[in-house]
């Protein structure tokens, strides 16, 4: 994901809108929303099919450019190595690209291939990682939401909205990689509020993860909408974390906002 971009035209999109609840999770009253922060992975597109496809592209590249690595390391082995890097370097948890680069470097080193190929391999993975399959509701919802509100992308991932062709829907993007801390840390939510030029209480954060998105945003003083696309996801809920709104897709949220 790219860093914060221009918020030119912000006031043109800042019309207030009263929320109508779809599923009421707790005692609350309709609240004015002046901006929306939006999670990306698993909110606009399913992330794991994307990662699996990108890993396959990386492995295919290794077969051509680092044959010793491909011969001694399976695709599953690369995934295990990535997990080991994450365990060994918790200080990088805000930077998923750093985890991936280090995993590629270690795979090359262990096989005796040239470690200077690391960046080339990462570029192959990263380019494929941007080829996402949007949920059916994503584009029409982005059209409706961005016509009414300034949208701020707020993600722990390393999506590049420019490469995806989605940047024009967003006034700005705040990523954990660029900011230095990840959700659910309230500081990254406050950074998104700063970029939007709105108070946290006037922002609705929308995301799929109950802890990273809903709990984090609530602790930062924002309103929240939990996107629950399947029953198994909803069963992960906690009575201690109560979003103001729960929807099964983003078009339901648009209807609730009157967009």
UniProtKB/TrEMBL annotation:
Cofactor(s) listed in the protein's UniProt record: Mg(2+)
Q: Which UniProt keywords apply?
A: Hydrolase, Magnesium
Report the EC number(s), separated by commas if there are several: 3.1.3.-
Q: Name one GO biological process term.
A: riboflavin biosynthetic process
Q: Name one Pfam family in it.
A: Hydrolase
- What SUPFAM superfamilies does the record point to? HAD-like
Q: Name one GO molecular function term.
A: hydrolase activity
State if Hydrolase is listed as a keyword. Answer: yes
> Which Gene3D superfamilies does its entry note?
1.20.120.1600, HAD superfamily/HAD-like (3.40.50.1000)
The record, for NCBIfam families, names: HAD-SF-IA-v1 (TIGR01549), HAD-SF-IA-v3 (TIGR01509)
This chain belongs to the protein called 5-amino-6-(5-phospho-D-ribitylamino)uracil phosphatase YigB
The upper taxonomy is: Bacteria, Pseudomonadati, Pseudomonadota, Betaproteobacteria, Burkholderiales
Q: Gene behind this chain?
A: yigB
């Amino acid at each position: 994901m790219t860093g914060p971009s221009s918020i030119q035209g912000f006031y043109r999109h800042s019309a207030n809108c009263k929320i109508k609840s779809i599923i009421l999770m707790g005692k609350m009253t309709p609240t004015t929303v002046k901006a929306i922060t939006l999670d990306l992975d698993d909110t606009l597109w399913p992330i794991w099919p994307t990662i699996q496809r990108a890993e396959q592209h990386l492995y295919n590249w290794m077969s051509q450019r680092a044959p010793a690595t491909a011969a001694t390391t399976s695709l599953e082995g690369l995934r295990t190595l990535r997990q080991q890097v994450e365990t060994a370097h918790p200080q990088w948890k805000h930077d998923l690209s750093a985890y991936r680069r280090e995993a590629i470097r270690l795979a090359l080193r262990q096989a005796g291939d040239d470690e200077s190929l690391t960046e080339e391999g990462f570029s192959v993975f990263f380019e494929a990682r941007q080829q996402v399959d949007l949920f059916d509701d994503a584009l029409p919802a982005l059209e409706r939401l961005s016509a009414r509100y300034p949208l701020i992308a707020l993600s722990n991932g390393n999506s590049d909205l420019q490469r995806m062709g989605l940047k024009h829907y967003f006034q700005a993007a705040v990523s954990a990689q660029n900011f230095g801390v990840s959700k659910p840390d309230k500081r990254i939510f406050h950074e998104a509020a700063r970029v939007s030029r709105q108070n946290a209480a006037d922002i609705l954060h929308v995301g799929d993860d109950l802890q990273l998105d809903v709990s984090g945003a609530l602790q930062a003083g924002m309103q929240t909408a939990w996107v629950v696309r399947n029953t198994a996801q909803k069963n992960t809920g906690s009575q201690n974390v109560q979003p103001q709104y729960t929807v099964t897709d983003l078009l339901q949220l648009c209807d609730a906002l009157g967009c």
